[in-house]
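Q: My collaborator sent me two sequences in one message, no labels, and asked for predicted structures for both. Can we handle them in order? The first one she listed is below.
A: Yes, handling them in the order given. First sequence, followed by its C-alpha cells:
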Amino acid sequence: MERHPLASQAFIPMSGHPYLVVVAPPGPTPDAQDLRVFLAQPHQGVNYAPGVWHHPLLALDAVSEFIVIDRAGPGHNCDEITLPQQGIIASRNG
C-alpha cells in the first residue's frame, strides 16, 4: 500500500480491461478491515485524494496500460507499507 501526502494521484486506463481499486482511509497505517475493493470498468479512471492509502492497480484480464498523473516537485510524497496477508479474496462473481 502507498499514499501520497502532498497531492492527489490519478490513473486513466488505456487498455480496455477492468481492474481492481483497493483503498483505505487517510491516517495511520491501515488494517485489513479498513480496506475497500472496487471493480473499475475500462472506461473509469480513478483519482486518489492526498493521503488516501491505495494498492498499486490490479489488472484483471490482461496486462494493462494506464496514464498516470502525479505530482512533480520537491518534498517527500510517497509513503509505502506492507500489510500482513489476511486471506482477503475479491470475487467478480458475487
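Q: And the one she listed second?
A: Here it is, processed independently of the first:
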Amino acid sequence: TITIDVHNSSIQAVSDSDVTVYEKALDLNQDGQDLAPGTVTGSLPGNTGETASGTLVGSVSGAVGAITYTLVGSATGTYGQILLNPDGSYTYTLTSPPSTTPQANDGANTLSETFTYQATDALGNSTTSTIVVNIVDDLPTAHADETSVAEGGTVSGNVLWNDVGGADGLAAGGAVVGVRAGSDTSTSAVGGLNTQINGTYGYLTLDANGNAVYHSNPNAVSGPGATDV
C-alpha cells in the first residue's frame, strides 16, 4: 500500500519596508543605479540617496522549492520607479517630490510609496504582499547674509538669493515666515514681517519675498564700526 498525503499550500508573504530614499538627493541626471532621472533638484543633488535597493528574500514562508517574484501592476509609481527581479532583489528610484501639505514638508516627515508583488513557488502556489518605500522629505537651507552701511544710511537686498529651496521649492506665496532680532537660531522665527525690527544700531524691515531694508541710526556707533544682527 502506498499512502500519499496531500497538504494544502500555506505559502505566505509579509510586507517589506526596508528601503529608504531621500528627497534631498533628487537631480536631473540618470546616473549610478538610477532607473530614471529626476524632475527637480533637491538640496543635495550630489548625493545618491534618491535610489536604493532591497530584497524580498526572507519575506515568504511556506513555499515549496524556488520562489519567483513578479510585480503586480505598474512599475511606475506616484513618485518614482521600481525594478523587481525574479530572484526578489529590487531597486527603487525617487524621481519627483511627494506632494504633501506645507506642514508636512518639515524634513522630519517620512512619506511612503507602495507596490504590490507576487511570490510563486515551484508548485505554482502564489501569494501577494507589498513593497513599501520610505521617502524622507527635503528641507530648504538658509544661509546667513552680510552687508555694510554707513552710519545713518540705508541698505537693502534680498535674503533669499543664497538660500536653497530644496526639492519642494520655495513657497509661491512667500518663503519668509518670520524675522526677529538677534542670532538665536535654535527656534524658528515666526511673525514680524513688514514691521520695524529694532536692533542695537538701527532697525530692519523684511517681507515674505525676502526683501529687506536696514536703516542705520545716526550717531549710534562709537569707534571704528559695529555689527547689528
